[in-house]
Amino acid sequence: MRRDVVRESYSARSQEYLDLFGSIDSTHPSDQALVASWAATLTGAVLDAGCGPGQWTDFLAQRGLAVSGIDLVPQFVERARVQYPNLSFGLGAFEALDAATESMGGVLSWYSLIHHNPQDIEAPLAEFARVIRPGGGLLVGFFNGTTVEPFDHAATTGYRWPVAELSQVLVTAGFEVIETHTRTGSGYRPHGAITARRRSGKTAPEIGG
Predict the structure, then answer these.
(1) Residue 120: partners with Cβ closer than 8 Å, 6 or more residues away
(2) Which helix (H) or strand (E) is 195 found in, with range?
């Protein structure tokens, strides 16, 4: 399964990842500002889906949210539990969340869908839509590109998405897109982010007619 490839790839390079990205200080200031402003709109339980070593989970907790984190990689979850013992972390897959329907106020998916190919990305988004209550928030961070295409990520194959196309996938999954953001600069791949709100109902509204 693709999920097993992702887990094994990150497990093999977990210490390298922790050294490079294991602290909130390694994140871009504009990303911190975006996540903070998004967090201010949320109430209720929040899930950090793909929490890694827990830096964003802690960032959200510092803003008063009741947040927990899940990740596929055992080494990341172990590190998160040691680093942030007052927070809850567990192993889990996004396609089958251990949460009741409409029980969450929001989900942060920060670069945690980048290894899902276009045929598979609908499954985790549908699960996010299931657990987020109507009006709750979703924030997705991803690699931006002019077309949906694979690239050689350091861990395993990743995918770039145009903002417009990923936005449409979110709409189809049951979300209303609120804001989109892009950023480019020397030394890193083009970045994109989308904030969205869970609509009532499960499918995109009909267009026309």
Answers:
(1) 2
(2) strand 188-198
